[in-house]
Specification:
The complex is a heterodimer. Helices cover 83% and strands 0% of the residues of chain A. Chain A has helices at 2-17, 20-51, 58-90, 92-99, 101-106, 112-146, 153-175, 180-206, 210-222, 225-236, 239-244, 257-280. The model of chain A has no long low-confidence stretch (mean pLDDT 89). Chain B has helices spanning 44-51, 72-75, 93-103, 108-121, 137-149, 167-183, 194-200, 237-243, 266-276, 291-299; strands spanning 6-15, 18-28, 33-37, 59-64, 67-68, 78-81, 155-159, 186-190, 203-208, 211-217, 226-233, 247-253, 256-261, 280-288. In chain B, strand 9 and strand 10 form a beta hairpin. The model of chain B has no long low-confidence stretch (mean pLDDT 87). Classes of the chains: A mainly alpha, B alpha/beta. Chains A and B meet through helix 1 and helix 5 of A and helix 2, helix 3 and helix 5 of B.
Chain lengths: 283, 305
């Protein structure tokens, strides 16, 4: 356990010293600025329209727009967290094997499993902070400007975090036997697959096409990243917008709690596979 | 009975169809400085990696300090400087030694003490707060060596420890090896610099095609394996035949004869024999065979390709 913590600390320090965190923070900050400015402008517009309108439903409509914008902001935060997870994980084992820095580490009284778990832990802590900053920044910006807080945030944000950790774990597993660049390709490919699968599922649900829904579920089984977002969105969005129709943030076909359990198992299994492959490797 | 520092029995490594190490059998005693010699691609680095548990042997067995290969308590008593040393370059020299000390399970007090001592020893005290990315190759090798010695190891593996160093750095490494030897540390030294091996090692193994082809005591160098050159008149066929009792590979070219003698103790006898045979001797020169000559003789001119 002590060795895991030593490796985790080293990993954490590495991401900071190699400016990976700084890059992520700059991009994230840029996103938050753009989002806040956009939100501010649209929200001002909405208030103006509400003041000049006699429509009794305008307030509800405005509320839906605010909710939609918030979900869009959270969706972007999710993507940034996932991208961060993929980039952190993709080069970690492969990079150290290629450069040879791993040799002096593994020749110490350290289990290889401890190396993998230490890296995973270091990245998980980092992603928790990053995810909290991104989602928290988005939510804070919306709340300060409009007083709106999506419902069930405490259920939704952890699912977003889980998605970023899942992608990071998958990246570590592939980087245990593929070079960094190939790992990045595979991970983003899988992420894209899940994304398309999610859309096919939503459209399938809209037109009541069972096959399309099945395809979506199968891709969720291949990689349950999009399912985690769908569930997070379902938890946090207003009930009306779920009923309205297809958008990346609306969920007609809601991933079940069973699927959430599957995602957790998937993560654990992937981490174990990473350890196993790394254990067998010649370094 | 004392435990050997290293003992291996037919360690073998295949990468697919390629045999990297055919069958490594060797024994290194505690306190020995053991040179591991062989041409490029002979399997030296793969052998070291197998001993340290970085590469899994296809077959064969071995022990380090009496424990099976990969045993973690044993690894805590071992130091390693890899050949293509690349370290966590985002760490400062201080942090780097700290990290490796922690991984070795050292107490923080002992760690700080030892770290300062080694930074001093390898001459990097003033660079302790600089990140390794700013270090030259020679400086990296020095800090790498310090890393390998953090735990006051009982056994150190040095894979090409002087390859990137200038003469001053080489001298430093040689001095450190000398000190370690005095302290009774076992050293497994892989180097192409035969002159280094000559002055530092007790014993060497020559490896070719992933097999130990010869193990030699360094004290034997110049004693048991000498060349003799004789310049004389009257080197008749019976005289040449008579010389065969002290050596072999006798070549005569005009008035010059060269031969490999079995033992230095034969020299006075040869001298006496020549006088008795009424050979007129103008020159009598025993030559020590250098390690380089033995190397070429052992692994072949082609370098074992």
């Amino acid at each position: 356990m002590k060795q895991i913590w030593i490796i985790a600390r080293m990993t954490f320090r590495e991401t900071i010293r190699r400016n990976i965190v700084l890059t992520g923070l700059v991009l994230g900050l840029l996103f938050l600025v753009v989002f806040s400015l956009g939100f501010s402008d649209i929200y001002g517009n909405l208030l103006e329209r509400a003041a000049n309108s006699a429509d009794p439903y305008i307030k509800t409509m405005n509320g839906e727009v605010v909710s939609f914008l918030t979900m869009a902001g959270l969706y972007a935060s999710t993507f940034l967290s996932v991208a961060m997870g993929a980039l952190l994980g993709a080069d970690t084992l492969s990079g150290e094997i290629a450069s040879g820095t791993i040799q002096t580490i593994v020749a110490k009284p350290v289990r290889r499993a401890e190396v993998v778990l230490g890296k995973w832990l270091g990245f998980s802590i980092l992603l928790a902070i990053y995810c909290l900053l991104m989602c928290g920044g988005t939510l804070l910006s919306v709340w300060v400007q409009s007083g709106f807080i999506p419902r069930n945030v405490v259920n939704g944000v952890p699912l977003i975090y889980l998605e970023s950790v899942l992608i990071m774990t998958v990246a570590i597993a592939y980087s245990s036997f593929l070079p960094g660049l190939a790992t990045g390709g595979v991970v983003f490919g899988l992420y894209g697959l899940a994304f398309i699968g999610g859309w096919v599922e939503q459209i399938g649900a809209l037109i009541e096409n069972e096959t399309a829904i099945q395809i979506g579920i199968v891709t969720s089984l291949i990689i349950p990243s999009e399912a985690l977002w769908k569930r997070a969105a379902f938890e946090m969005q207003s009930p009306i917008s779920s009923a309205l129709g297809v958008s990346p943030f609306a969920t007609l076909s809601v991933p079940s709690p069973l699927m959430m359990g599957y995602a957790v198992l998937y993560l654990v299994f992937t981490l174990m596979a990473a350890i196993h492959i790394f254990n067998q490797r010649d370094l | 009975m004392t435990v050997s520092a290293i003992k291996t029995e037919n360690l073998r490594k295949e990468f697919g169809t390629q045999i990297a190490v055919k069958g490594l059998t060797l024994q290194v005693e505690q306190g020995e400085v053991f040179g591991f010699l062989g041409p490029n691609g002979a399997g030296k680095t793969t052998s070291i990696k197998m001993l340290l548990g970085l590469v899994k042997p296809t077959s064969g067995t071995g022990t380090l300090l009496g424990a099976p290969l990969g045993d973690r308590p044993a690894l805590a008593r071992i130091g390693f400087l890899p050949e293509h040393f690349r370290f966590q370059e985002w760490l400062t020299a201080n942090e780097f030694l700290q990290l490796h000390g922690e991984l070795l399970g050292m107490s923080s007090r002992d760690l700080n003490l030892r770290r300062d001592e080694l930074l001093e020893r390898v001459g990097l005290v003033e660079f302790r707060h600089k990140q390794l990315r700013t270090f030259s190759k020679g400086m990296l090798q020095r800090i790498g060596l310090a890393q390998a010695l953090m735990n006051r190891p009982a056994l150190v593996f040095l894979d090409e420890p002087t390859s990137g160093l200038d003469p001053v750095g080489r001298r430093l490494v040689r001095d450190i090896i000398h000190d370690l030897r005095e302290e009774g540390t076992s050293i497994f030294l892989n180097s192409h610099l035969l002159s280094e091996i000559e002055v530092t090692c007790n014993r060497v193994a020559f490896i070719r095609h992933g097999e130990v082809v010869r193990v030699m005591e360094m004290s034997a160098l110049g004693k048991n394996l000498s060349m003799l050159t004789i310049r004389a008149a009257g080197l008749t066929a019976p005289v040449v035949a008579g010389l065969e009792q002290w050596g072999s590979e006798i070549h005569v070219d005009g008035d010059t004869l060269t031969m490999t003698i079995r033992s230095e103790t034969g020299l006075p006898e040869i001298n006496h024999f020549l006088v008795m045979q009424e050979v007129r001797v103008y020159g009598f020169t025993p030559n020590r065979l250098s390690l380089e000559e033995i190397f070429i003789q052992t692994v072949g001119e082609d370098g074992g390709l």
